[in-house]
Amino acid sequence: MNQDQQARQDEELSAQNRARILGARYQDARMIIDLPLVKDVLTLQEMYKSSVVPIRQTKGHLEFAITIATPQQVITQLRDRFSDYNVTFMLISNTGFKDFMLRFDPLPEVHYDDIQISTEGASDTLAQVSKTLETVSSDDILDYLITQADELNASDIHLETEEDYVRMRFRVDGALHNIAKLSKAKYKQLQSSIAIKANISTTAPDAQTGHMVHKLVDENGKATKTINMRIETAPTLHGQDAVIRLFNVDRNLINLERLGLNDRQLKNIKDLIAHPHGMVLVVGPTGSGKTTTMYSILDELNDTTRKIITLEDPVEYGFEGMSQIPVDTRKGKSFDKVFRAVLRQDPDVLMVGEIRDVDTAKTALQAALTGHLVLSTFHAADAASALSRMLDSIGDNPLFSSAIRLVISQRLVRRLDDTLKQEYQPDEEMKQQIAKVIQSLPDSVERPNLENLKLYQPGKSNQNPFGYTGRVILMEQLEVTPAIQRILRRGSSDSSTEILEKAAADQGMVSMLQSGVLMALRGETTIEEVYRSVG
Questions:
Q1: Any idea what the CATH number is for the domain that residue 404 is in?
Q2: Are residues 183 and 295 in the same domain?
């Protein structure tokens, strides 16, 4: 029973006790809410004023529902007014009365315009969206924003307080777009809704983290999608800023075959996760698609022969066939303590949402060496620096080189709309820059012909003013070969990022920059997107 259900149950018990004291007959309105409405007996004004509704009318009998707020004189007046009937009364709760009144006097259906993303300088669009948001009711504004963000495939909603207003931006395909300017009064309503659902405070002097879940429903009221969200707030000069991160994972995209990986990358992952033990790390900054990659690997492993347990903060998407454990680190829980406990459940595969501390790292390494396949994420700039940072944090640990099998580093770049993209000839400086990257590719990778080199830029249309559609992964995969293991065994002082990076390249690793340049040459993204993401 959730909090809302428990509160309703408590209210019904209170109404039942009050009825017993008053010598009245109690009725749980939930049991009779679907009865046909008895109309033309009382006016809406009378029902609202006296907290009374007609419930049943038969030949010679008329029954009303009252609340503890119904005056005694109203009961007497109703008996006198309908003296031709045997008039009886039942006591219902205040919420039950409100539910009946919503049937007698339903709220008018309100339609709000969809949010449109404005192009740079499109003040008319910004003003129109701002005007629309000011008309959305306080009860609807949070649901409306989440629904609109989901329809636009936004990953984040940014609410940023200025002196006289609050700026709202959506992050779509990795780029922030101005959406609207909210008045401070409307933002207070939105803040209150967020605080209630995410269990945070609107006046906290420190940064806060909260979680909430939103169900999208169709026109018939049927739930169509569940969105998990993480809320981060921080006090600023002009008020409390907030970022709502939407984990709107599309189940159809959680599949290794649909990540847009090339044949070599796909085969490498499948070969390495086929081993029954070892560790696979996925690294990158927030918003780089780590979760989707991790879930896709889990999807590949998820069959009836394996026991899979995940530890997540929060659980971003529910899977059948896995035991998913939420670890609320805000309440003092740690991944390490829960990790040790679930190891006793004999899992084949363990996924830890993120390695954040030394204890979790050491427990994960130990598990990877004792018959478990361990998957986790880690914050690092690239694959080589992830290994170097991990060594620095755990110290010279002989387990490390034997446990780690694969490090995946990735970024997300915007994908060009194939129907709009335009080819062009880059200048001489860019040609030389691209040639330098291509020449550094491993011998095992086919080099594209750089004669008549062409790149691509986004086109525009009314339907797609930015020229991009979705995002695609830039990925590098550092496989821990015997040569890499030998370097790691030297210890952190002799295993710098540069040494590891060179060794991995000698072993055939294609870097994110190299992958990105190849994608730009194929017209999948722009060269500017590549350098913006990986420098």
A1: 3.40.50.300
A2: no
Q: Which SS3 state, helix, strand or coil, does residue 438 take?
A: helix
Give me the helices (H) in 395-534, please.
Answer: 398-403, 428-439, 482-489, 497-506, 512-521, 527-534
State the maximum Cα–Cα separation within the chain, in Å, rounded to a whole number.
100
Q: Are 214 and 226 in contact (CB under 8 A)?
A: yes
Q: What angle, rounded to 10 degrees, do the helices at 512-521 and 527-534 form?
A: 170
Same-domain status, 38 and 179:
no
Position 438 in a domain: no
Note down pLDDT in tens along the chain; length 535 residues.
566 677 788 889 989 998 898 888 999 999 998 889 998 899 999 999 999 999 999 888 999 999 988 999 999 999 999 999 999 999 999 989 988 988 888 865 555 566 666 555 455 667 777 888 888 876 688 888 898 888 888 889 999 999 999 999 999 888 888 888 999 989 998 998 899 888 888 888 999 988 888 888 777 667 777 888 899 999 999 999 999 999 876 666 789 998 889 999 999 999 999 999 999 999 999 889 898 999 999 999 999 999 999 999 878 778 899 999 988 777 677 788 899 999 999 999 999 989 988 999 999 999 999 999 999 999 889 999 999 999 888 887 778 899 999 999 999 999 999 999 999 999 999 999 999 999 999 988 889 988 889 999 999 888 888 899 888 999 999 999 999 999 999 887 788 899 999 999 999 999 999 999 999 999 999 999 999 998 7
Domain count, the chain: 3
Q: Residues 309, 387: one domain?
A: yes
Mark whether 222 and 344 lie in a shared domain.
no
- Please identify, among 207, 226, 247, the residue that sits at the C-terminal boundary of a domain: 247
Domain assignment present for 289: yes
Residue 500 lies in a domain: yes
CA distances from 297 to 271, 272, 285, 375, 511 (A): 12, 11, 19, 9, 21
Domain holding 75: CATH number? 3.30.300.160
373 shares a domain with 268: yes
Domain that residue 174 falls in: 123-247
Query: In whole angstroms, what is the distance from residue 495 CA to residue 392 CA?
Result: 10
Going by the DSSP 8-state scheme, the letter that residue 90 receives in this structure is E
Domain membership of residue 109 (yes or no) is no
Is 0.85 surpassed by the pTM of this model?
no
Same domain, residue pair 309 and 230: no
For residue 448, give every residue at least 6 positions away whose Cβ sits within 8 Å of its Cβ, in sequence order, or none. Answer: 438, 518, 521
